[in-house]
Amino acid sequence: MALLSVENLTVELQTSRGMAAAVRGVSFALERGGTLGIVGESGCGKSITALALLGLLPDGARARGRVDLDGTDLLTLDEDALCHIRGNRIAMIFQEPMTSLNPVHRIGRQIAEPLRLHRGMRGAAAREEVLRLLDRVGLPDPARRIDAYPHQLSGGQRQRVMIAMALSCAPDILLADEPTTALDVTIQGQILDLISELVEDNGMGLILISHDLGVIGETVDNVAVMYGGAIVEEGAADSLFANLAHPYSQGLFAAVPRPGLSRGNRLNTIPGTVPELTDLPPACTFADRCAKATDICWAQVPVMNRIDPDHRTACHHLGGSVE
Amino acid sequence: MSVFLARRFLSFLITVFGASVIIFLLLEVLPGDPALTMLGVDAPDSAIAAIRLELGLDRPAFVRYVDWIAGLFHGEMGLSYVYKVPVTELIGQRLQVTLPLAIGAMVVATLVSLSLGIFAATNHNRIGDYGVMGFSQLGLAIPDFWFGILLIILFAVILHWLPSGGFPGWDEGIWRGIRSLILPVFTQALGLTAIMTRVTRSSVLEVAREDYVRTARAKGLSRRAALWGHVLRNALVPVLTIGGLLVATVVTGTLIIENVFALPGVGKLIFDAISNRDLMVVKNVVLLFAAIVVVVNFIVDILYALVDPRIRIHS
After folding, report:
1. Cβ B313–A165 below 8 Å, yes or no?
2. What is the pTM of this model?
3. Fold of the CATH domain B87-314
4. pLDDT score for A322
């Protein structure tokens, strides 16, 4: 059985124009030690999906479906039970290391917090463990930095602190939401390498969320491409990137700037803009921006078709065997 | 830290010096001759000249200013024209009423507004929030002298729980002194509470949306634990700012409150002094008010640094 299995997850958010589905029937599974990348534009529902796993959706949001962690449906748990899961069995790293740490507390205290909460560690034992964690995530001179405030650290160092914090209780699953987006390119690689290394060493499952195909491609075994709140294509990273099937995935890939392209060539873009959640087409959410769209795309929600043994996509205009 | 303190002390001196010049000049150009007020408009010129000589008003303005400031450095504020006693003595007596009143009002306002503001923020857009906001709107709209009169009618006239005004002096017993200050303190706290409640509420709401609060929740902290551990301290900074500014309102507000409750405080002192053209008292009390406001802002600056380590580094 998979460690985490998400079935038909739907999340509705409260907007000024009523409830809007930000996540529509998303399903995926993560094995113990497995790595999954979720890729898509901003607003495609990837971060909301992650927050739904932790039960940290914004006020007024509703989640339906199943999120099974070791056979327990997290969506049915009450707040107390979720507090035992958060930071303990599922930990999360956020995009902005600048704003994700509390500016008025020393980093040592912030890293020790989950240890105190979930492991009952205090005082010298907690401090020792924090030092070990800081050392593990490669923060130089932990003994001096442990009493630093976040503003005294660089962006990359703060992200290392975030990782140490997420790692502190040896979670089963690490959710990394755009962990390198706010960092310099040189630091990005270091942080990704660190995450990969820790995931491998600790046998954690990893869900890496990014809009950056390069980041995803280098780090994970399986990939899910999200658009308009739904997964439009998923599969093993190798076969998915070798043969992008869904028109949206192709557009996303074509939009990545590549060196060597002559200056005269314009960067490929996907026509149209990311639609508002409330304005999404009713059936295939990509229909209004898709060059291949026909009547059926507006009438019928496409189901996942297998186009390869480990590669599936949801598009009416692709062959493959319906599951 | 010592450099910081030295710089702040220097700026304190400069501010108070500036205030003293402005106060002195204003009182010079304002109409109203103390000698005339004391003797009446029908007094003979010779008598008025004699009084002016006695009060030292015949000397040039600059000499009188230097005399005043030099006296201040020796802890002397001169003699009241009306009471014929040292102004320091007058102010010293009156502060025994005004200081407990002002501090009490700030303490009550702080405690109530922090509780109400946090309560409103944690019940955002629910009935409790609307209730607190309605109360605060009312508190802003009601003039404090009128609220004071309402309190007197209810607690003194109808219920006979508390005295309607006056102050027996601390010699008559601590409890009797406190009893006569309860209504004034709450009257003065009303407006402050209304403002600080709003600031606390919006500040807590804003901080609660910060990324680091989400981080705290993702670590497994409950809503309440995240509020106490990660929201409140950050939310305090704007509250401190407003609280510091409101001290000026409190200090000047004693003027009204002490009149409504017939309290022999500094506010009443300056009110009477202005009516009697007792300029020696007026200028010293106004300067004292200015100094209090500057000192409080200095304390607020230190509190900032205690609350937020980022401010510590820059200073």
Report:
1. no
2. 0.83
3. MetI-like fold (1.10.3720)
4. 47
